[in-house]
Amino acid sequence: MTSGTSHPSGLTTTRAPFIEEARSRGELFIHQPWDDYSEENHQSWRNLYARMQERWERHANHRFLEGLGSLGLNGDEVPRLSDVNRFLAPLTGFEAKPVSGYVPAYLFFDCLGRREFPTTITIRDVATPDYLPEPDIFHDIAGHVPMHTDPAFADTLVRFGKAAAGAVERLVAQGNPEEIEERVASNLRAMARFFWFTIEFGLMRDRENPDELRVYGSGLLSSYGEIEYAIESPAVQRYPFQLEWVINQGFRIDRYQPLLFVVDSFDHLFEEVTKLEAWMQSGRLDHVAPGEPVISPEEVRISLEAARSKVG
Ligand SMILES: [Fe+2]
Q1: pTM of the model as a whole
Q2: Which among 35, 152, 271, 298 could bridge 3 via Cys, Cβ 3.0 to 4.6 Å?
Q3: 127-159 burial, b for 16+ CB within 10 Å, e for fewer?
Q4: Cβ neighbours of residue 101 under 8 Å, at least 6 residues apart?
Q5: Gap between the terminal Cα atoms of the chain
Q6: How far is the CA of 39 from the centre of ligand 1 (A)?
Q7: What's the pLDDT tens digit per position in 222-259?
Q8: Cα separation values, 78 from 8, 55, 84, 168, 276, Å
Q9: Do 273 and 158 contact (CB within 8 A), yes or no?
């Protein structure tokens, strides 16, 4: 089905012919065929957006709420990335860049370092609005991108992306040390854990009432059920952010998180990225605890190949 037809085939998660075709051609970076969204897809966006309103008001940090406003996001229909970018670029230089699916870790981090955010364009089925392990456009645009309007947060993300991509480049530049595959996997695991417990599932003290917690992690900001669970459930363990713990802590993506970490402020988060970078440079991430997330040999191979072509 081509775009612009009167009966679009839709861009529903796992059921989007446009995406299947792009993948079969090996295309990772694509365009957003906006006319392909079906009425059901737009309804899915409307439902998701409408029910998040009161949860965002109650639990989201202030910069996210400001970001929603400055992006001009609304609940009427699936947004066009070109519209989002028109508002976003003048604020922080960030750009939502459409992708056909999973972006290998090194390439993902490298994009962040260039202020590009790999963005899923499919949307979850209207019949199943709750959390799903794979990202969709609601998670990426309504969960992540409002944070990218904030200069301090955007700079933190860039610094993280450069440090994470730099971890692979460092090992390549060392002239391929012993056990390079294991070390690359370890660094990617540490970086993925940091990203997970901050950018995806991070909690922060409220700036006015430090005893209260607010959400800044996008996995929570895009989940109607978990945003409240994360703040209110007595079943969740919430600890002050500790870098040595986070880089060694595994996680599961298919359930509500039982363990979350709290930072004091965006300045604190930035300091932790600085520390992470220093630990990476000194080799302290070369042997973190094994476990989740499992970094496959294929992932390591792709990351090494991409870093080698960049380092030269
Ligand atoms: Fe995400």
Answers
A1: 0.95
A2: 35
A3: eeeebbeebbbbbbbbbbbbbbbbeebbebbbb
A4: 19, 23, 28, 120
A5: 41
A6: 25
A7: 999 999 999 999 999 999 999 999 999 999 998 999 99
A8: 14, 20, 11, 36, 36
A9: no
Q: What is the dihedral of CA 235, 240, 244, 246, to 10 degrees?
A: 40
pLDDT tens readout for residues 99-145: 999 999 999 999 999 999 999 999 999 999 986 778 999 999 999 99
The alpha carbon of 133 and the centre of ligand 1 are apart by a number of angstroms equal to 10
Give 154 Cα–ligand 1 centroid separation in angstroms.
Answer: 15
Question: Mind listing the domains of the chain with CATH numbers?
Answer: 17-311 (1.10.800.10)
> Residue 74: phi, psi to the nearest 5?
-145, 170
Angle in degrees, CA 117, 192, 289, rounded to 5: 170
Torsion over CA: 271, 148, 28, 255 (sign): positive
User: How many angstroms separate the alpha carbon of residue 122 from the centre of ligand 1?
Assistant: 14
**Positive or negative torsion for Cα 150, 98, 181, 292:** positive
Give the separation between CA 58 and CA 99, rounded to whole angstroms.
32
The amino acid that residue 308 corresponds to is R
Handedness of CA 65, 70, 75, 81 (dihedral sign): negative
Question: What is the C-alpha separation between 251 and 104, in angstroms, rounded?
Answer: 18
